[in-house]
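Marked as duplicate of an earlier ticket. Keeping the data here for the record.
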Amino acid sequence: MKRIVEAPKETSIKSPPAPKTQEREFGDIIEKMVERMAKQWKNQVLRAMNQGTIEKFADAQKGNFAKILLSMARNVKKKLLKQYDDSRIESMSNQFTSKVDKRNQKELYGKLESKIGISRDELEATEGLTFQINAYKLETSQWVKKLRDETLEDWTSNTLRLMADGKGLPEILSQFDGMVEKRKNHAKMVARTQIASFNSLTTKARAQNLGLTKAVWVTSNDERVRRSHRDRNGEEFDLSEGLYSAQDGKTLLPGTDYQCRCDYRILIPGMDDEE
């Protein structure tokens, strides 16, 4: 589209918030993936060992039994990577990001319609951002793939360390259960962060596509707001650059930092500002 929009007078609109329903549902499905991976890994690696294997491993025969464990882990990893392959994860992620994208488009253009006098239907029909938004969708799926791969590596390396430390099978199983809970919690955090980030990035892309270049950072204004984000509150920034804070040494766009609940007001220039 690449049109330049203005309002009769300088004004602003608030960016559409990240949808909590999609955050929750995406988190649930990624958590379920970790849960199913854990069940298979536990049954086919940990329970495939026996206490004698653990004792021999601890009895100065690390090389041989490390190879046994790694071989079992490698076989299960191969099965899990086939079960949760890249295509499946991309399809799963696309299911949720597409809903977020549709909602973002409807809400953002709905807010703009009353400010700039161009109908939401026209803004949607002439958008032309398919390739850019598809790239953001793919970025979301990459984070889920990273979670999958790091989870399998963590389970393997931690089990090897516990065996090397001479831990018994019951303790290894118990600690594995703890690791699974941590990964499930991490899965929910990844889901919340990536849905919020995708929502923020699509808002930015749509605003820039309309020639809107400036915004103001807005926090959730509660005790949970981290200091570095509170430092940015109320500050104007370029959408193309984001906003820097010496508190964390980062340049960020609201909603893209981990578990960030901030959003922004998009500034719309007024016709009466023209000379």
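See parent ticket for discussion. Residues 169-209 form the longest helix (41 residues).
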